[in-house]
Amino acid sequence: MNRHTQRTTGMRARKGLILFFLCFGGMIAPLPAADEITSVTILTFSGKLEISRRPNVWDPGHTNQVLQVGDRLRTGRDSRATIRLSEGTTIKVGAEANILVPEQKKGVTVNPLSGLFYIFHRDKPGQVELRNQTAVAAVRGTEFHVEAREDGVWILSVIDGEVDIESGGRQVILKTGQAAEVGTGIPPRQVPMREATNLIQWCFYYPAVLDPKELEFSVEQQAALVNSLEAYRSGDLNAALEKYPADRQSASDSERLYRAALALAAGEVTFAEQLLVSTDSTNGGRVRALRSAVLELIAVVKGRPRVESPPTNDESASRWLAESYRLQAESDLHGALKAARRAVELSPEFGFGWARVAELEFGFGQIGATEEALAQALRLSPRNAQAIALQGFVLVANNRIDEALATFNEAIADDGSLGNAWLGRGLCRIRRGQNQQGRHDLLVAASLEPQRSLLRS
Q1: Co-location of 48 and 153 in the same domain
Q2: How far apart are CA 74 and CA 231, in angstroms?
Q3: Most exposed of 156, 212, 323, 356 (fewest Cβ within 10 Å)?
Q4: pTM of the full predicted structure?
């Protein structure tokens, strides 16, 4: 293929991509209520999820499972799930949480028993409510957070919109930025609301930045972590966490950093930060650079200012990859691409680094460079859901919609918490005329990554 043909093909691909997003990019809008879909359904989960339909009997849950009245759902440690209440409402369920599907009173009703829950609501007001033995919360807004304690107390925090709480004949209406506590013997009363980003940090998506080659493990650690590290190198963070030995105590700073990276992948941000605190910040060499990389990534995802100094030219690939995300957050996309390329120059076998290069090249419309970097990423880390989803967008750019749809399905199967995969599938479905299914996928994309304004614009 000569240069003119390559240039023409690239221009057509970029024009096709631009037209695709111009046509469908504005379709993430409040969805109309869909009366025909009212079943509580498991959309996706990572880690351990169980369902109980009989007292003290728990069975493994599965994707697309419909919960019936009386069913209970619980998640394990380092686990998360997303369930759909209706066509326009999803709930993200945190680790070690428990939720009941009670008798349906009005619209769709659930009872959060314990744990953390993030509700993303796009139905008509009053279509969804939370109900326990003492309180009812009617959802009239769009986004709120619930902390449910085992003693029956709820702390509801409204991130955007409005929630009506009734208990014991008393009513409290919460609006954006307000919170309330309610429970047995506790009438609904307003309490100070925590900063929203800290409140829902467990929902955020944290990409991998640690290069496994830079982790310094002893022979014993290598043997104990061999299966987890193999999954990590393949790009499958959820499997890496599942294969990390249960109840193992990290035996070194490198292992604490690795465990912190896995905790972030599961939304366990507080635990990850605790591990970082216990890491020796005065330790020189790779440990300091890796610790700096993870700290900077957390700050970026939370929308915080820079916490670490920029890396030096010969510093670790992990630190340069984290710097790429920092520079993107500062709207320096050229700098972000340069930083990502520096990461793979320092570590040519760094699969997550190549996926980042491909992602940024794609943002500049450089389809050829994207495909080259993506081929490297998928060769090194074939189970990296971010890279698989990006492959779907490349197929879209070349108007290969059916292949793109299959690729997005693969990415969702590998990591159902990745908003980009749901976004891509939703756009493909709309392109094929499956508007209702497509809009539903766009809703899920927006609910999975609440810090990303692009997914809800």
Answers
A1: yes
A2: 25
A3: 212
A4: 0.87
